[in-house]
Each structure stands twice: as structure tokens, then as C-alpha cells.
Amino acid sequence: MINTKIIGRNKILINLEAFKNITLAIVLIITAVCISFKNYLLFHTLIEIASVTSAFIISIIAINTYKISYNSYFTFLGVAFAFVGGFNLLHALAYKGMGIFQDGTSNLATQLWIITKFIESTSILVSFNLLEKKLKEKTILLIYFIVSVLLLMSIFSWGVFPVCYIESSGLTVFKKISEYIIVGILILSILTLIKKNKMFHRSVYIYMIFSLVTMIISEISFTLYLNVFRISNMVGHILHAVSFYLMYKAISGTSLQRPYNLLFYELTQANNELKLKAQELEKSNEKLKAEIRERKITENKLIASEKRYKNLVETLPDAIFVHVDGKIILVNDEAKKLLGAPDSNNIIGKMISDFVHKDYHELLYNRLDKLKEDSSTVPIVEEKFVKFNGQTVDVEITSTSSVRRGKNVVVSVVRDITERRLLNEAIEYDKLKGEFFANISHEFRTPLNVIYATLQFMELYVAQNASGKIRETLEKNAKAIKQNCYRLIRLLGNLLDITKMDSGFFKLRLNNHNIVNVVEEITLSVAQYIETKRVKLIFDTNVEEKTMACDAEKMERIMLNLLSNAVKFTNPGDEILVSVEDRGESIIISVKDTGIGIPKHKLEFIFDRLRQVDKSLTRNNEGSGIGLSIVKALVNMHDGEITVSSEYGKGSEFKMEFPVRIFTAKNDTLEVAVDSNSIDQLSVEFSDIYFDN
């Protein structure tokens, strides 16, 4: 209750003091304005004396705090305001009408004024950046002395300082630009002060902000007058004095009236931090006692953890080598298997370099040095390890390190990549093989087209000019050549398709078709060929129409390939049955024959590339062994499945099941019209079959 009353009384006293100060300031300003109208020279002299006095008081107080200050802010500001006050005094003495200097114009006073304001604004900006730095007092003093001497000589000795005021026209461009530059520097000072506001006491911060704002308004006023005795000049001088007073209140008032709340209350902050440190130290002491009691428990847990770590290492699928300074101290069972060691003791105690191929020793040592320096993880690299029997094994290895009991412990994880490398080599070989097939196919097409075109011309010539046995012989030879051209065309087409399939460029042209009609037309188109071999061809279906999305051209190719295979392995009197069965959501297409059949042990690779059931030199038909592999690929691309069942000596059946899907919109892939001049697909697909003449 008593504290509340005391606080209330203090607030009343503070408010009364503030009221007195504001009233006094208003009275002084009104008095100054009245004096300016009566005698402007007297007004100017009094204002400048007040400003100079404030500057010197600020300087004295700031310099005397040098020994107790943690930074150079006070010292720098003290030296700066000493020189600011000096130049301000020279400005007052040089003012027009004082008669102290021989120059009777207002230019000299204006030049000294510009110098004063440049030093003042620049010093304030620089001082805010010295809040956390310490400079020698003599260094600061020497810098300001040299700068001041040079500036004075530029006016009084050399006469190089720009003219600031012309009696006939008023302020020069240089003077106005200088004032705006000074305003810019003061704005930067305000921004810097706002950024570092936490380093100032609140009252100091407020006084400084108001002081800098007043300076800015004052400088703007000094850019507006044409005559040094005008009102804008008077307002600028009054605001100039007010800004010095506010700066005085921020520094000298704070230092003298509130010694326990200095401009930077670093001591208070240090004391608070010290108390916090003391509290933390007390808590640390309490924790230390508990930690000592728990140390044994922790050691026991560590032993158990190491045991679990060893168990974990043993369960990992990769080889683990733990080594210190290159010497192996722990391995798991996979490491024994990798090196072919009979026991872990054959590995432990040896250097890791003993098992790394000599070609990789430099890489090993560089990685170990990096782990020793950084205690980090090195990336995965491929190396060769040497087994106990002297054989080398391809591995990839990564390592990580940590400091344990003052030693750099490295854990290396090693993986056998022999199988992966062989797989990559196989993939690369397969890729090269595909590229070879593609190149050889393209190389063969040009001469083959020439041969085929020449053959057509020859057939035309024979038909028109030859007769008798000569014509019969030529036609027989032309037929043999044409059939072998078809065979080459088929082989090249298959090779190109395989290459496209492997590279992912083989695409279907799907559209809605009546699949029953498609299969029936294909079957009927080969009837003439099959009849020449005296084989019966039957087509059967349990549905007349079934629309589904498919590539009709690829379906034709599938059916022709299966039918040609059926013809190859049937004898006169056998039959081939093509059937279509509707199962609602799927359709079954079957090609069944009563031919020689396929041996049971060869069914498993019937769809493999370049594999043939009949490889005998006496076989009646030719083939590359890739037709059925393409058939399977085309069926799979339709999301279908193909299976084969056969009994040797009784015949075979190829059964395909396709999902029934309908396109509701036109497919993006355009249909390609069949060229009337293109080689007959039927002749191409049946080119491997030798028909009787």
C-alpha cells in the first residue's frame, strides 16, 4: 500500500517537472522569436551561444566517461561535439554584422555552418556503429584535428571550399545539396538507432530520436531562405538549438540525474546475467551429484549397448569392418564370408589395407585422412578387395567415423557388387546387341529393296518375252528369290520391332474393332496358302460380333505368325482350328493344330528369343526363333496373356485371352493407311514355309 502511494507521488512529481520544462521551453522560444524581430544579430548570437554551450557540455561529460565505458561511443561523441562546438562558435563569430572577420558577406558563416553540420551528422552516424567497439581516445582526437585543420585551410588559406551563399541570389546549389545530404545522413542515423534500440535506455532512446528529427527539420528550413535574416533561417536556428538541448538531455542529463540508469545500462544487464549464471551454477552442482550417482548405471547401460551393437552388426547383410588407425578391431560374419576367412581372428588385428587391392591404396589412405580430420562420412566408392585365397572381389564401400575414448573409430560398410556388375554388363551387352540389330536391319533394307524391285522387273520381262522351259525355269528361280526376300523382310522387321520394344518406342494404334470379324478375315486370307499343303483350316466362334479396343494390324501379325507356325509343323491330312470364345469381360482366341507337337521339355522356353524347337538340318521350314517372342510381347501390350499346351506327336494349342475394353472417345493415335504397293504381309509371314510347286 505504501509502495503504491510512493509510486503515485513520483509520477505526479515527474509530470510537474515535465510541465515546468515544457513551459520554460515555450517561454524561451517566444522570447527568442521576439528578439529576432527586434535585433536578428542578437538573436543569432544567443541561439549559437546556447548551441555551443550544449555541445561543450556534451563533450565534457562524454570524454570523462572514457575510463568506465565498455565501448568508444561516449568518447567518440565527446570529441566530435567538441569540434562541432568549435566550428559552431566560428560560425557565430563570422556571421554577417559581427565584424570579427574581414569578409563582410554571409558566405563565410554559411561555409562554416555546412562544415559544422557535416561533422555533426557524420559523427552521430559513426558513433552508433561504435557501440560494440573500443578505440583509443588519442586516435579519435588526432583524426578530428587533422580533418578540422584541412577544412579550415580550404576556406582561409587555399580558398577552395565551394561558395555557399551569394548576396545577390542567395543560397548556392552546393549549399542546398549539402543540406539534403546532411538530411540523408541523419535519416540513416535514425534507422541505425532504431535497429540498435535495445542497447539504449528507453528515455535516452526517445530523446535521441526527437533530437535527430528536430535536426532534420532544421536542415530543411535552411534550404528555403534567400536572406540570412528571413523567418526560415530563424526557425532553422531555433530548431538547431532545440536539437542540441535534446541531445544534451539524452547524454548529460541521463548521466548526471540518473547515475544508476546510464546511457547503456550494461552494468545492470551484466549483474542480471551474473545472477542467472549463479543460479545455473547452483543447479549444475545439484545435477552433478545426481550424475555421479547415475554414472555407474550409465556405464552398465553402455556395456549393454555395446552388446546390442555387436548383435546388430552381426545381423546386417553387408560386411562390417571396425578399425582404429587402419587396424581392424571388429568384423561381422558377412566380412568373414566376403574375404573367405575361416574365423574372425584371422582378420582382427590386421590392417584394412591388407585386404584392399594395391591399386586402391591411395584412395583408401585419402579417405582415412579425411575421416580423421572431419570425423564425418565419406561417400560410397567402388574398390577391389583381396580374399584370403588371393582372388579379388568387386565391392562398394562407405565409411563413417566418430571419436570414442579419444580415438578415431572408423566403421566401414562393404557390399559385394560382383553380381550387380555382371548384371550391368549383361544389360549393356543387351543394349549393344539391340543397337547392332537395329543397325544391321537398316543396312540390309536398302540392298534388299533393290533386289526385290529388280525381281519385279524381271518377272514382268519374263511374262512378256520368255516362253517354254526357259520361262518355267526363270519363274521357278524368281519364286525362290522372292520367297527369300520375304524371309529377309520378315527377319529385318522382327529385329527392328525387338529393338523398338526394348527401347520403349514400340506403340500400339488402338481403336474399337469387331474382334470376331478381324480374326475371321485373317483366317480366311490364309486359306489358299494352307490348302496347297492339303491341311484343313476350320474357323469357329460362339459369338458373331464383339467390339473391343485393339490394334488391328498387330492382331493380324499375331494371327499370321501363329497360323504360319501351325502350318510349319503339320502334315497333309492334319487340321488347324481357329476359335473365338466370348467370356463377357474377356475374349479367348485359340489356334490349335493336330501337327507334330512340341516336346514337353521345350515348352518352357517356347516364347524365348532366338530359341527354336526344331534345330535339325533336315527340317522342312526355316525360322529365326524370334517370331513367338514378338507374339507374346504384342499380346502383353494389349494387356493379354498367351499360353501354350502341347503333346508331342498329337499337336499344339496357343490360347490368348484379351480384356474387353472400349474407347469412348477417339484415340489420339491416328490410323495409318495401308500402302497398296507395300509387300504383302501374308507372303512375308508365310515366307519360312516351303510349299509344293
Automatic annotation (TrEMBL):
<dbReference type="InterPro" id="IPR003594">
    <property type="entry name" value="HATPase_dom"/>
</dbReference>
<feature type="transmembrane region" description="Helical">
    <location>
        <begin position="46"/>
        <end position="66"/>
    </location>
</feature>
<keyword id="KW-0902">Two-component regulatory system</keyword>
<dbReference type="GO" id="GO:0005886">
    <property type="term" value="C:plasma membrane"/>
</dbReference>
<dbReference type="Pfam" id="PF17159">
    <property type="entry name" value="MASE3"/>
</dbReference>
<dbReference type="InterPro" id="IPR004358">
    <property type="entry name" value="Sig_transdc_His_kin-like_C"/>
</dbReference>
<feature type="transmembrane region" description="Helical">
    <location>
        <begin position="73"/>
        <end position="92"/>
    </location>
</feature>
<keyword id="KW-0808">Transferase</keyword>
<keyword id="KW-1133">Transmembrane helix</keyword>
<dbReference type="GO" id="GO:0005524">
    <property type="term" value="F:ATP binding"/>
</dbReference>
<dbReference type="Pfam" id="PF02518">
    <property type="entry name" value="HATPase_c"/>
</dbReference>
<feature type="transmembrane region" description="Helical">
    <location>
        <begin position="140"/>
        <end position="161"/>
    </location>
</feature>
<feature type="transmembrane region" description="Helical">
    <location>
        <begin position="206"/>
        <end position="225"/>
    </location>
</feature>
<dbReference type="GO" id="GO:0000155">
    <property type="term" value="F:phosphorelay sensor kinase activity"/>
</dbReference>
<feature type="coiled-coil region">
    <location>
        <begin position="264"/>
        <end position="301"/>
    </location>
</feature>
<dbReference type="InterPro" id="IPR005467">
    <property type="entry name" value="His_kinase_dom"/>
</dbReference>
<feature type="transmembrane region" description="Helical">
    <location>
        <begin position="177"/>
        <end position="194"/>
    </location>
</feature>
<keyword id="KW-0418">Kinase</keyword>
<dbReference type="InterPro" id="IPR003661">
    <property type="entry name" value="HisK_dim/P_dom"/>
</dbReference>
<dbReference type="InterPro" id="IPR033425">
    <property type="entry name" value="MASE3"/>
</dbReference>
<keyword id="KW-0067">ATP-binding</keyword>
<keyword id="KW-0547">Nucleotide-binding</keyword>
<dbReference type="InterPro" id="IPR000014">
    <property type="entry name" value="PAS"/>
</dbReference>
<dbReference type="GO" id="GO:0009927">
    <property type="term" value="F:histidine phosphotransfer kinase activity"/>
</dbReference>
<dbReference type="InterPro" id="IPR036890">
    <property type="entry name" value="HATPase_C_sf"/>
</dbReference>
<keyword id="KW-0597">Phosphoprotein</keyword>
<keyword id="KW-0175">Coiled coil</keyword>
<feature type="transmembrane region" description="Helical">
    <location>
        <begin position="21"/>
        <end position="40"/>
    </location>
</feature>
<feature type="transmembrane region" description="Helical">
    <location>
        <begin position="112"/>
        <end position="131"/>
    </location>
</feature>
<dbReference type="Pfam" id="PF00989">
    <property type="entry name" value="PAS"/>
</dbReference>
<protein>
    <recommendedName>
        <fullName>histidine kinase</fullName>
        <ecNumber>2.7.13.3</ecNumber>
    </recommendedName>
</protein>
<feature type="domain" description="Histidine kinase">
    <location>
        <begin position="439"/>
        <end position="662"/>
    </location>
</feature>
<dbReference type="InterPro" id="IPR036097">
    <property type="entry name" value="HisK_dim/P_sf"/>
</dbReference>
<dbReference type="InterPro" id="IPR013767">
    <property type="entry name" value="PAS_fold"/>
</dbReference>
<dbReference type="InterPro" id="IPR035965">
    <property type="entry name" value="PAS-like_dom_sf"/>
</dbReference>
<keyword id="KW-0472">Membrane</keyword>
<dbReference type="GO" id="GO:0006355">
    <property type="term" value="P:regulation of DNA-templated transcription"/>
</dbReference>
<feature type="domain" description="PAS">
    <location>
        <begin position="305"/>
        <end position="375"/>
    </location>
</feature>
<dbReference type="Pfam" id="PF00512">
    <property type="entry name" value="HisKA"/>
</dbReference>
<keyword id="KW-0812">Transmembrane</keyword>
